[in-house]
Amino acid sequence: MTRSSQAQFDAHAEKYAASAVHRFGPSLPVLLKVADLKPDDLVLDVATGTGNTALVVAPHVAHATGIDVSPKMLDQARLRAAQEGVTNVSFQAGSAEQLPFADGSFTLVTSRHAPHHFRDVPAFLQEVHRVLRPGGRFVLADQITPRAELQDWVDFWQRTRDPSHARQRTVDEWRALTAAAGFRPAGEQIVPYRLEFGWWTQQSGCSADVVEALQAHARNADAAVREAMQLEFDAQGQIQAHHDPMLVARWDR
Ligand SMILES: C[S@@+](CC[C@H](N)C(=O)[O-])C[C@H]1O[C@@H](n2cnc3c(N)ncnc32)[C@H](O)[C@@H]1O
What we know:
It is an enzyme of class 2 (transferase). This is Class I SAM-dependent methyltransferase. It is built from 12 helices and 8 strands. By secondary structure, it is of the alpha/beta class. It has one domain: Vaccinia Virus protein VP39 (Rossmann fold). Strands 1, 2, 3, 4, 5, 6, 7 and 8 form an 8-stranded mixed sheet that branches. Helix 8 packs antiparallel against helix 11 (about 210-220). The longest helix is centred in the N-terminal third of the chain and has 14 residues, at about 70-85. The protein is globular. The termini are far apart. The structure holds S-adenosylmethionine. S-adenosylmethionine (SAM) binds near residues 48, 49, 68 and 70. S-adenosylmethionine binds near residues 9, 73, 96 and 113.
C-alpha cells in the first residue's frame, strides 16, 4: 500500500509537532554545524514539516522559508513560530520536485528527514540546484540504507510502518545523484539514531495488524540485516528497537 505524504502527515501533524526525537534529534546540531550559517543567508528548508529545521536556523540568518506538501504540518510550524516569536520565517505549501521560486533565490537549501518520501529525487536535486545561487550550499539529513543488498528489507520495513515512504538510499547513491545534478561534495557524516519500536509505530498511527506485520518482518530478518540495522529483541523474540543511520552531508553548487 502507498499513501501520499500529504495524507500521511496531515493525519499525524500534532503528534509530529510534539515529538522530541524529530524536534531535538541529533541530526539537527550536526546539520547546523555543517551548514555554516551566515547572517545574510537566505534559506529554503524543503519538506519543513512542523518547521523543526527552519525555526532553529532562522535566528542566525536573514530569512528562512519552509515549504511542505502538508498544510496541517505547516499550520503547526506557523503556530510554533508565533509561540517562539520568530518573525524572519515564512511557510508555504509546495512540492520538493517543483519549487515555486525563481532561479538563484537562496544561498542555502536544507532538507531533513524527508527525501526518503520524495517520488522523484533527481527532479528535487535539479530544483535545489536551480534555486541556489552559484556558491550556494545544499545540506541534507536523511536516513540511509547501510548497504545496497539490504534495500528491499529496509524499504519494506519503512513502507509498512509509513505508507508514504518512497525509498531510502545508500551513501553511494546520494554521492552519484548529487554529482549528476552538478553539486560538489563538501563533507559528510553519519549520525546514529536508535528508534524504540513502540514509539516508532505509534508515531505513524500503525494498526495492530501493521504492528504484527512489522514484528514478522523483523523475526524473518537474516543475520546481515539484524547486524546492520542493529535489531534489538526481547526474551520473547519481539522487536524492541532498530537503528537508522542518518547521513548529514553538504554539497556546494
Ligand atoms: C518526517 S517529516 C520531516 C519534517 C522536518 N524536515 C523535520 O526535520 O522534522 C517529512 C516531511 O516531508 C514532507 N514531504 C514529503 N514529500 C514531500 C514533497 N514531495 N514535497 C514537499 N514536502 C514533502 C511531509 O509532508 C512531511 O512534513
